[in-house]
Amino acid sequence: MKVIQHTGLGVAQKLFVFAVAAFMAGSAFAHVFPKTEEPAASAVVTSPAQVRIAFTGPLEPAFSSLTVTNAEGTQMTAVKAKVDPANTSVMSVGLPVLPAGHYIVHWVAVAPDGHRTQGQYPFDVK
Predict the structure, then answer these.
(1) How many domains does the chain have?
(2) How many angstroms separate the CA atoms of 26 and 36, rounded?
(3) The pTM is what?
(4) What is the mean pLDDT of each run of 10 residues along the chain (126 residues)?
């Protein structure tokens, strides 16, 4: 009678399993979200020259966007948002002089791996 003993996973197999698990955990965090916002959410400010958001990771410039609308839903941004080439986790868009009122920042952030997040936040100009 032949006895087969199972010795468990070898070192190479354990390393492979660990690498796959680490990759899977890392891909769960591939979505990027705002880390800092200028002007900040719910802030009351004088007319800002731009809106600038720093995200938790790099952005894909071709698919990420940033716009500002007024309380009536009219888009106030006349130019396309830009991702900073020196720091690809930062996106900004210039603004005209904004009259006093309520504004909403709308953002879409696409990570280089294609994961997309989006959101919005308000601010007011006094």
Answers:
(1) 1
(2) 22
(3) 0.78
(4) 57 51 49 98 98 98 98 96 98 98 98 97 98
